[in-house]
Amino acid sequence: MSDGRPVSGQLKKFVFRGKSTANGDTRGEYLEIKIPELLSAGYSFYTWPSAPLLAWYLWTQRRHLRGLRVLELGCGTGLPGILAAKCGARVTLTDSVALPRSLRHLSACCEANNLVPGHDIQILGLAWGLFLTDVHSLRPVDLLLASDCFYEPSQFEEVISTVAYFLDGTDARFLCAYQERSADWSIEALLKKWGLKGALIDLDSLSESSGVEAFNMAEAVLDYPDSDFSDDDQTPLDISFNQAAGHVRKLTSKLDNNQLLELYGLFKQGTEGKCNTPKPGWLDGRGRRKWEAWNSLGDMPVEEAKEKYILLVQKFDPEWSDERATKMSEQWVAVSSLRRSPEPELIHNELSLLDAAREDCGERVAELLRQNPELRHERDDDGLTALHWAADRDATKALLAAIEGGCILDAVDECGQTALHYAASCGHINSTKILLNAGASFLKDNEDCTPIDLATDDEIKKILEGAKM
């Protein structure tokens, strides 16, 4: 922690509390962070006033930090970053590469809070404005932190250029707390030069109501529920709309974020009408963009939104048409799309393993796996196995048959998701229980989300959390 020179020190404790009424518990949430300070060793060994303020703000947003990739610049004793790590974020703390003793002290601060450098939290020497190999490996980040980095005007542009580098081409945000030292100092010109925009956060209006979802932008158009109604219950417009929605799932890899957001907004307007949810909080960059895509449609009628959605799908894929989708009566169009019930006696012997899993034909699944055990490894173009399809459709007979037939329980698709991810995210209680009873693991997907992170149904969450204990 030191180079052998005697220094005076103290252990400072920062206590963060928050009310909690879950399950009748009124004791509240509590987090204590210990920071060893070396008062005579230099400015980077002392917790300056901006750091507790930034840490406090992060504490108010603690429910949205889990899983976020967080990078703190010039962190000194690292209070904000350590708090973010304790709240479940994946944190990298950086300070000047020219101050190795400061970096060693930073490691000591982490260890004082039971965070092991290199395992629970990362520490790296960094030079503002200098982008070496180690710096490139830090991208992408979700949240960039800095407390009191704007204390020396000659270094303002170095800080801003570093921030601009990490934010470029991403949905990341930069959160900074600073102490005003001179009314003549300003970073507005530098923000404009580097293509950035800044805004002050009103601390009096903090809210813990916003949420951060773990998904990539392609998933932004995929979060609508299963359609459980038949074509007989729908108008021709509804039928075309649902067919278009199913077809979109096959296009996501070909569309950019703006196209996906446009589709998302029209889908939400077409299914729920005018935007009826509060704007997500500051930390939820992706959620805010989704909300804005929906909210921007204002009072657009539901029928108009559906028509525009269909036309947009046809624009993005000119080869697609309602007639083509209708002819796919015995095929599948997408995960969580329209369910189809084959005529068992007529089609049973023609169903593939994946078809049988989708249609909940448990006997056919068992038969195929008995005849050819190697089919347990079969996948579709998106990496989905029979277990994935059965879990997605809550096809419990097929799911049990696939498990008993030896299908790999923790097989992952192209996004790193298992069948348990699918069952949890779709809210399928029976499928979730079946997979847990079979020993399914709580793996993280490519976005670092476990099935619990993706679950939105309270009962599903209780089941998963109970199984994980």
Supply the key terms.
20 helices; FERM/acyl-CoA-bd_prot_sf; alpha/beta; 469 residues; lipid-binding; disordered N terminus; Acyl-CoA Binding Protein; Rossmann fold; Serine Threonine Protein Phosphatase 5, Tetratricopeptide repeat; five-stranded parallel beta sheet; two-stranded antiparallel sheet; 10% strand; 3 domains
What is the topological layout?
Elements: E1 9-18, E2 29-38, H1 50-60, E3 69-73, H2 79-86, E4 90-96, H3 100-111, E5 122-126, H4 133-136, E6 143-147, H5 156-167, E7 173-177, H6 188-193, H7 236-248, H8 257-272, H9 285-295, H10 302-316, H11 322-327, H12 344-347, H13 353-358, H14 362-371, H15 386-393, H16 396-404, H17 419-426, H18 429-437, H19 451-454, H20 458-468
Parallel strand pairs: 3-4, 3-6, 4-5, 6-7
Antiparallel strand pairs: 1-2
Helix pairs in contact: 1-2, 7-10, 8-9, 8-10, 14-16, 15-16, 15-17, 16-18, 17-18, 18-20
Verbal overview:
With 469 residues, the chain is an alpha/beta fold. It contains 20 helices and seven strands. It has a five-stranded parallel β-sheet with strand order 5-4-3-6-7, with helices on both faces. A two-stranded antiparallel ribbon has the order 1-2. Helix 14 packs parallel to helix 16. It starts with 8 loop residues before the first strand and ends with a helix.
Distance between the termini: 37 Å
Percentage of β-strand residues: 5-15%
Could you give the count of β-strands? Answer: 7
CATH superfamily of the largest domain: Vaccinia Virus protein VP39
Give the number of helices.
20
Query: What structural category characterises the helix and strand content?
Result: alpha/beta
Q: Sheet with the most strands?
A: 5 strands, parallel
Gyration radius, in Å: 26 Å
Q: How would you sum up the global shape? A: globular
> Stretches where pLDDT falls below 50 for ≥5 residues?
1-8, 20-27, 204-232, 322-346
CATH topology of the largest domain: Rossmann fold
Number of domains: 3
Mean pLDDT: 77
Output the CATH class name of the largest domain. Alpha Beta
Second-tier CATH architecture of the largest domain: 3-Layer(aba) Sandwich
How do the strands of the widest beta sheet line up side by side? Answer: 5-4-3-6-7
What is the succession of H and E elements? EEHEHEHEHEHEHHHHHHHHHHHHHHH
Helix content: 25-40%
